[in-house]
Records
---
Amino acid sequence: MRLFLVIGLLFLPWVSQAQEDSVHIVCRPQSISTLGVRDLFSMYRQRDTLQSHGASGPMQLQINGREVMPTDSISKLYLASLVADYPALDSLWSSYLQPEIQAFSAQKDSLLQHIRAKGWAMRYVQAIRNLKRQQQLNAMGRSKVLLSFHNFNLAADVGLYSRGRYLRRSTRYSQMGQAAKALGLFWGGDFVGFPDPGHVQRLVNSAALVKQYPLLAFEFEKYRDHYARIYAAGRPENVQDTRELLVTLNTLKVGQICACQYALIPPQNNLFSESAYVLADTQAGWVYVQPRGSNGYYYALGRWEFVAKK
């Protein structure tokens, strides 16, 4: 008996770690007694991830037949992110990210001084980038991420010049990158699969950003299906950052309220409205989610759980 107990104790940390390393979680139907506005927003984003990622526009929210509105600052941030086609994430999250933005600004200044002390001409050609521009760069093949550190004012693109001429390719970028790394920045020349020698950023990858600032998971959830496709199709050495992000998002979601995968037979007629709806009934155990201009569906309420590894 004692031997089995020892084996069990040794096995438990391995099981826990295996779960924490999972890139897959599942929404299990459960009885939900209470939920709040943030839960409604999270379920809307979860279901809309399967749609076109468009703006929600005006939203109608109900819990047990009673209309609810966001009142706390975080819920208002979530709503502001949902209602716009291209929310200005740099200003929306500037207060939350202020320590990182200030530190990054100081590092950029130090890097600029260091490079200019070598007698080289350097300037930052882009720092803040809006989401519309980010999508354009992806469409042109000039970026591989749908949500960038640029969108949060935590990355910058460096331009080096010689005799007034912009250097598109130069060994100087490698030296600039080494100087940036010495200052605690992360250099795009080290990116696997899509190196970007003129890029510097505050943190190593999106997973590190979300771990440090968990509220940002709400923004990355919008593109979960995109990350999942990259992970499924990519070579392990090329998708490590994507894997870390999925694992981080999953770890943060476990235990949270969710809209379970398969739609229910509707207890009433769909609303078929141009408005976005999230209506929850804890007694009946369902949530109705309707993105703007799309069909709505009923889902069982549940909670996110890790998928047991086979």
---
Amino acid sequence: MRRRSLAVLAAASLLVGGLAACGSDDSSSEASDTLKIGVSPVPHGEILKYVADNLAAAEGLKLEIVEFNDYIQPNVALSEKQIDANYFQHIPYLEEEVAAKGYTFTALKPVHIEPLGVYSKTVKAIADVPAGGVVAIPNDPSNSGRALSLLAKNGLLTLKDGVGVKATEKDITANPKNLQFKALEAAQLPRSLEDTAISVINGNYAIETGLKPSTDALALETGDDNPYANLVVVRTGDESDARIVKLEKLLHSAEVKKFIEDKYQGSVLAAF
């Protein structure tokens, strides 16, 4: 997977929400008034750009949007205070990151759900997945268990009772088609379609590569009781930062909900 250095990302970040070049006399004040937030480009970056272009000025909020193309660096950048917040992850993933790396982060309110989907370039229906077919799934534990659970719900395998989205390959009790699992970094999953029977792809990466989850997925998660809503995460103690409070208000507005519904047509679901 292609990764950019944080220095390159910062240089390439999209400065929006009315932030303009200013003289040296007030540059420090300008920086302190601006909320710098790390995102996955789609849909998070698109949602924030809508907020910046249409809603932020009325609240006196300035946003600097920094795009990341993986799931690791946004939390590193937040921990190292290179950004003020990030918006790319769900709580199960955040909990894994905190347990593994000791981050002191706080998750705010759910914003949207990107349903995980099953995709293929050769198979037209779940029932037609061939015996011995290669199945690509995400390699991070929260999303790999989520993928196995989706496959089980669609009849391709059976899991131990009660494991649900915490499943691992060791929890598979029946694999009637003798499917071969290949765990990949989430960003690589769309490219894996060239070499797999099916691939289970996170919604943001599916959309980025031109797939439309609501129509192209052979199977798709629903939004009902879905614990995988994406949300803003901050360093613990920053929840009351006035800029964060303003952003949360705007991200949970009727205008943003309508933007999500109109733009993504069921491929991204508002979670509020």
---
Amino acid sequence: MLNFKPISLESLDEIKEYLPCKSNRTCDSTVGTLFMWREFYKSEYTIYNETLFMKVKILDEKTSFTLPIGKRPLEEGLQTLVEYTDQMNIPLIFCAIPEEAVEPIKNFFQNNVEFQFDRDMSDYLYLSEDLSQLKGRRYSGQRNHMNKFRKMYPDYQYIRMNKDNIGRVMEFYDGFSKNMVKAMETAIEENKRTEEILPLIGDIGLFGGFIEVDGEIIALSVGEIINDTLYVHIEKALKEYPGSYQMIMNEFAKDSVNESVLYINREDDAGDLGLRTSKLSYHPHQLLDKYYIKVIK
């Protein structure tokens, strides 16, 4: 019935067709997330009955499934996974299920499910107007950092990534990653996959920009837009340039959003307390909670 195969660069065109069908704003079903983390989670996909199915290895290497995405009713996709897991004689476990899909899944399985919530997985969703304009008293701290940056580096430039300058961007990131403290396994994987994905900017639906000071790149950001949301997958800056993180966040937001892009998803914090403090300081519009769900057969 379902014939899963690994995600590859060649498969992205097929996968991308279904991503606008998603009815949520979580980052898990985006080109950047799927491609960057495909090996870490041993991700596989298949398309059946006009629906994209994804399975990953998570929760102690157990096979898990993300929410089916497609042009057919969700119930049809859930039934397909019931039949597949019965055929394979494996439990039906869902991961990264957005909160709005919890009730439909509970109803379909008549409440025969077990839930597990992981705060570390919650995405930070912001209003695009907030991050692109930083208006109001609550953003005074960010504006102060940015004003200091502008005063110290009045001739800075924000530049869009393209095929002509991507070589310089890769050189910057190579030096940046070598100086990072790589304590977490996810950080190591992110570094490796960022180096892989940068040459593909403009080819797979991702775009980016960087800040330059005195001819040297000091910060970069990469993302994509699906429906009404900008997803920021990569954001790096040199901390020795005070205010560089605030500047690249704001410049990328201003350059990327338009009247049809209402939200910015800056992904989860992976349980990093420093990152959590930083993301909360930008006053998210909503935390997009996600769940593990095990079906009790």
---
Amino acid sequence: MLIVPEREIADLMTRQAAFDAVEQVFAAMASGDAYNFAVVREAIGHEDALYGFKGGFDRAGLTLGLKAGGYWPNNLEKRGLINHQSTVFLFDPDTGKPSAMVGGNILTALRTAAASSVSIKHLARRDAKVIGMMGAGHQAAFQLRAALEQRAFEKIIGWNYHPEMLPNIEKVANEAGVPFQAVELDEMTEADVIISITSAFAPSLMANHVSPGTHIACMGTDTKGKQEVEAALLARASVFTDEVAQSVSIGEAQHAVAEGLIQESDVAQLGAVINGTDPGRISDNQITLFDGTGVGLQDLAVAASVVDLAVRKGVAIEVDF
């Protein structure tokens, strides 16, 4: 079995490699060549932590495995560790034997950013110039760096529940040489692309905060009850997702479906746009929304990619198991 420690990931995995892996697995899901297993996610009654498993099998890429981990909200304050902790386990689909164990923290951040970046590539207007960031935590910087590679953005605007955290994304803007401005939510109407990456359980981005033609990537809602945007916004938008079943049960679409504003059949797979079986954006005035719930296959795809890189660079640790 190969082990790729967390400490090695940052020097191995590039944003482009993560983007390619996620784009390919979205396409495989839409074509029926890959599928996710049921998600297990539980409050464990200790340290206010949420813990669970996401897994799946990609027949096209012959990738089988799971990601184990979750959210420990006290880690940063108490221990100086990031709150999201995870590990990916890969198995040989021919024999069932474990083939790799991979640190999942940076990979999770990279694959989540890659997912929204893939949605921007395929759904945002080509002439998009202003990107809006709703959220400024650990994941927001990864999101912004990946998004900036998809369009020639000329301005970044940002909002966060805690404004003192906005320098996290302003730093990325400065690195990219793109002007940054802190705004109120009603000023998000200036944005051509909006990424929401918060852990909220009540909507912040309302339908009247979004202009016609905007693409929104909702990346924070991955649990029953969470909500970043007003349900009425999904009724105005063409809604796409990584996996429809998750979107309507634990993703942003759960609220719009529950209120009867949209039906499950109104939610399309982003992979179908990649494959060309769904037209995606069909007009410059159309609002498109990607409900990124996070699927196990994304984690497996980037983990398999990083294992290959680690073997090539001689940093994978091989153990008898």
